[in-house]
Specification:
By secondary structure, the protein is an alpha+beta fold. Helix content is 40%, strand content 20%. It starts with a strand and ends in an 8-residue tail after the last helix. The model has no long low-confidence stretch (mean pLDDT 98). Bound molecules: adenosine-3',5'-cyclic-monophosphate. Adenosine-3',5'-cyclic-monophosphate (CMP) binds next to helix 4.
């Protein structure tokens, strides 16, 4: 079923000029980038986005990291896009990520892991709505 997921190319990747290389992996996997913009996340946006992790010990570090450099926020579309993108990203910890995945190829650590992808269709809808209007998504 065609669906959409939300993606972030994180500061460790934008800093190293990896936006194009990450996008090549996404597109080669059959996912279509139907919206994309480079932004500097505000602290408030990052805190809202990661609200589910606010009790975790790494929350402060995670928010500081996400606002440290620009990020690229994206909407990806395709068959089973949520699950497919999670497969393409690889495990959260790059040390456990499978060969050929974005995190295996490019991520530096569990915190600085190059990309984010929604973990469910419900969360994809919420995350997309935080950063994009319907008019900005051109499928
Ligand atoms: P993401 O998919 O963006 O969702 C939550 C993020 O928290 C995760 O990717 C990691 O970047 C980050 N994270 C998870 N575990 C840790 C950890 N142990 N230390 C620092 N950051 C973490």
């Amino acid at each position: 079923m065609t669906e959409r997921t939300f993606s972030i190319i994180k500061p460790d990747a934008t800093r190293r000029n990896l936006t194009g290389k990450v996008n090549a992996v996404i597109e080669d996997a059959g996912l279509r980038i139907v919206a994309q913009k480079r932004i500097r996340m505000t602290r408030q946006q990052a805190e809202q986005f990661y609200d589910v992790h606010k009790e975790r010990p790494f929350f402060g570090e995670l928010v500081d990291f996400m606002i440290s450099e620009p990020v690229v926020v994206q909407v990806l579309e395709g068959d089973n896009a949520v699950a497919k993108y999670r497969e393409v990203m690889g495990a959260t910890n790059p040390a456990q990520a499978a060969d050929g995945t974005i995190r295996k190829l490019y991520a530096e650590s569990v915190g600085e892991n190059s990309v984010h992808g929604s973990d469910s269709q419900d969360n994809a809808k919420i995350e997309i709505a935080q950063f994009f209007t319907d008019a900005e998504i051109v499928g």
